[in-house]
Amino acid sequence: MMRRILLAVLACTAVAATACSSSDEPAGDLPDGAGLLKDAAATTAKIEAAHFTLTVNGEVPGLDVRSAEGDLTREGDGGAAQGTVSMNLLGQLFEGEFVLVDDKVWIKGPTGDHQELPASMVANLYDPGAILDPERGVANVLSNVQDPATEGTEDIDGESTYRVKGKVARDVVSSLVPGIDSDVEITFWVLQDGDHRPVKASVAVPADGDPSVDVTLSDVGKQVDITPPA
């Protein structure tokens, strides 16, 4: 899983057994979108570890990953991640496991042992650790959403959320979604109560077929121990 290939934001189908129901309400009955995202950004910047899921809907130019799921941590020099991935690798469909620790990535198919990817390949791949990086990850995107508007409420896997939509500049979102060459529309779902932690988000990619890149964060604060394969 190439370090520039793995990531970005989400839809109701991204997580198995996730139940979604939504409702639109008059804008005057909903909290201000900018305030919700400000709280969500502050909360996300403090997250040290979490579980993530990724789904790519359609064909996103420059993004070879189709889906991924695993754990993330900000520990170490460059963070770490591990899980499973489905992606196009050197022209072939690869489905298996990945481990990322600092600047090194290992993959493992259905058979055989983990194999470390060459440094020349890693340099061109997406870094899942970017998700939790306060300066280039989800917290940074939340802080730079333009014209955010709260559209309604939605229940996600038993959690009550507000749905907030806005726009994000290309240079802000490109660290999370490789291949983005223009500004994008983005939707966040944040908890209604407490610190308004983001539950999921979805980036609408301006390309043929209206593809999107979706990601969820759950099990925030879970203990994660990620080490290089033996």
From TrEMBL:
Keyword Ribonucleoprotein included in the entry's annotation:
no
Record Gene3D superfamilies: 2.50.20.20
Localization recorded for this chain is: Cell envelope
Is Isomerase a UniProt keyword of this protein?
no
Question: Mainly resides where?
Answer: other
Keyword tags: Cell membrane, Membrane, Signal
Q: Could you name the Gene Ontology cellular component terms for this entry?
A: cell envelope
Recorded hits in InterPro entries, A to Z, give: LolA/LolB/LppX (IPR029046), LppX/LprAFG (IPR009830)
Annotated coiled-coil segments of the chain: none
Signal peptide interval: 1-19
The cross-references to Pfam families, in alphabetical order and at most eight, read:
LppX_LprAFG (PF07161)
Its family remark reads: Belongs to the LppX/LprAFG lipoprotein family.
The protein's name is Lipoprotein LprG
Q: Organism source for this protein?
A: Actinophytocola xinjiangensis
